[in-house]
Amino acid sequence: MVSVPDDAVTDLAARLAPRLLLLRAVAAEGNLTRAAEIAGVPQPTATRWLSGLGAALGVPVAARRGRGIILTRAGERLAAAAARALAEVERGCREALDEADPERGSVALGFLHTMGGVRVPELLRAFRADHPDVRFTLTQGAHGDLLQLVRDGSVDLVLTAPLPPTDHEFAAVALARQPLVATVPSGHRLAGRRRVALTELAGEQFVGLKSGFGLRQITDRLCAEAGFTPTLAFEGEEADTVRGLVAAGLGVALLPLAEPTTPPGTVELTLSPRAHRTIGFVWAQQRPMAPAAQAFRDFAVRHSQRAGEGKT
Questions:
Q1: 3-class SS of residue 268
Q2: What is the pTM of this model?
Q3: 235-258 burial by CB neighbour count: b if 16+ within 10 A, else e?
Q4: Which fold has domain 6-99?
Q5: Higher pLDDT residue, 168 or 247?
Q6: Residue 286: exposed, middle, or buried by beta-carbon count in 10 A (0-12, 13-18, 19+)?
Q7: End-to-end CA distance of the chain
Q8: Residue 266 to residues 70, 223, 232: CA-CA distances in angstroms?
C-alpha cells in the first residue's frame, strides 16, 4: 500500500498546530533558525511565539545557550505534550489525506441481506482487483434501516431495492433488474409447473420478510395488484431463512432468483406476468461523497452495464 508522503502530513499538521510544531522542533534541533524553518515561520515570529508561551505560563519556555537554544524544564514538559499531541494530529491528518485519495480511502457500504451471498462479494472482488488499497466497512440491513443509515451519514451509499424517489433527500442510480419468482416446496401441488400466475397463490400460506424490508414491500404490492392480501404464516429477516421455511413445507414465498442455484427442497416458478425488482445505489443528495465511494459507485455502474451488454 502506497502511504501518504510524510512531508504532506507534516505540512497539514503545521497548519493546524504551528506553535506545537515549533516547540517540538526546538526540542529536537536546539537551534531557533532551523526550528523556525521546520515550523514554516520567520525566526522573529518564532521568537515571539516562544515569548508569548512563556508569558502565558508565567515562566520562560526557552533560554539561550551560546549560539543555540534550549528548553527550560517547563518548556521540556510542554514540548513533550506537544509531541504527543502532534503525533495524534498527524495520524488524523494521514487518515484524512487517505480519505481524499480514491485509491486509498474507505467506503462505508450498506446492502440488503439478499445481496450478501453472491452479488456484493463479486462486485467487491472486481473492484478490489483494480483498487486494492481501498478499505470497506460493510453493513447489512432491511431496506428502511439502510435508508436511515444514509440519512444519518453512517454509510456512504447503500445497495437496495426498491429505489426511493430521487428528491432533495436521496439520489439513486439503478444497477440491475432482478427477476422475482414464486418459491414453493418441492412437494407442492404447483411444483411441476414452470410458470404460475400470482392469483393461483391467493389461498396459500406465505412466508416472507418482516415489515420494513424492501422485498416485503414489493411482495405486498404485487399481491395487492393481483387482488389479495397474503397470509403470512412466518416472517424472517433473511432470504435464506425464508427459503429454508419454504423447503420445510411451511409456506410459499416471492423471492429473487436464488444465487448461485436453487436450494434443495424448493422449486422456483416464473411469475406470469413476470415480476422483478430494480436494485441500485442510494446516497444522500445534499452530502458530499468521499472520493473512494464515488469511484466504487461509478465502477459498479460500469460493471452492471457491461454485464447487461453481455446478456443481450
A1: strand
A2: 0.67
A3: bbebbeebbbbbbeebbbbbbbeb
A4: Arc Repressor Mutant, subunit A (1.10.10)
A5: 247
A6: exposed
A7: 39
A8: 80, 21, 18
Cell of 72: 527550560
CA angle 296, 299, 300 (to 5 degrees): 85
Beta strand spans in 80-204 (E): 106-112, 135-141, 157-160, 170-185, 195-197
DSSP reduced 3-state for 159: strand
Tell me the backbone φ, ψ of residue 300, rounded to 5 degrees: -65, -40
Rounded CA separation 15/227 (Å):
66
Residue 30, classified by CB atoms within 10 Å of its CB into exposed (0-12), middle (13-18) or buried (19+), is middle
Give the tens place of pLDDT for each residue, 7-59. 766 665 555 577 888 888 888 888 999 989 988 889 999 999 888 888 887 88
Are the CB atoms for 82 and 25 separated by under 8 Å?
Answer: no
Return the bridge partners of 266, or none. Answer: 185
The DSSP output letter for 252 is B
CB distance 157 to 289 below 8 Å: yes
The vertex-139 CA angle with 138 and 142, nearest 5°, equals 150
Phi–psi pair at 253, nearest 5 degrees: -150, 155
Long-range pairs of 236-244 with CB within 8 A, sequence gap ≥ 24: 236/207, 236/208, 236/209, 236/210, 237/113, 237/142, 237/209, 237/210, 237/213, 238/113, 238/114, 238/209, 239/113, 239/114, 239/209, 239/215, 240/117, 242/183, 242/207, 242/208, 242/209, 243/183
**Separation CA 159–CA 140 (nearest Å):** 10
Q: What percent helix, strand, coil does the chain show, rounded to 5?
A: 45, 25, 30
Handedness of CA 150, 152, 156, 158 (dihedral sign): negative
- Provide the residue ranges of all domains of the chain, joining segments of one domain with +: 6-99, 104-312
Q: Which CATH class is domain 104-312?
A: alpha beta
Residues comprising the chain, all counted = 312
